[in-house]
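for the writeup, i need someone to sanity check this before i put it in the appendix. the sequnce is what the collaborator sent (i think, or maybe the updated version? ugh). structure was predicted straight from it, no edits. if anything looks off just tell me and ill rerun, i have time this weekend
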Amino acid sequence: MDNLINDKIDMLIMDAMKNHDDVRKETLRAIKTAFMEWRTAKVNVGKAIDETVEIQILNKMVKQRQESIQQYLEAGRTDLANAELAQANIILGFLPKPATEEEITTVFNNIVKRGEIEPIKKNMGLFIKALKTLLPNADGKLVAQVVQRNLQ
C-alpha cells in the first residue's frame, strides 16, 4: 500500500520544517517514533506495518492526548491542554472517519449471515475481534455495544 502514513512521514516532517510549523513537526516525529517502536518490538519482529496497525497506533496516541488534556484542565494548565489538543487534532487528520453504528451493525449482520460465528453471547469476544479487524476505524466501546445489543 502506498497510502500508508509510515511511507510518507519523512516527507511530511520536512514540509513541516520548511513551513516552520513546530507543533506539526513534533507531532509527526512522535508518530514516526511510535511506528518505529512498534516495528522494533520483539513481538512484531518480521511483521510489516500495515494500515490497520497504523490506525491502532494513531488511535492510541489520540487517546493518550485526550487523557492528558483532561488532566491538564483539572490542574488548571490550559496552556498545556491546548498544546495537547493541537497535537491530537493533527493526529486525527490522519485517521479515517470513524465507523458509524449502522456500518458496525451491517458488518455484524454480514458475519452472522455468512455463518462465520454463531450469534450467541459466549461468542461476544469473537464478534468484537472480527469487527475490529474488519472496521479498524470503529470505536471499541461502540463495537461492544452493538455486539451486546445484537446478541440478546
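Helices lie at 5-18, 22-40, 51-74, 78-92, 101-114, 124-134, 140-150. The chain has two domains: 5-92, 101-150.
thx in advance!!
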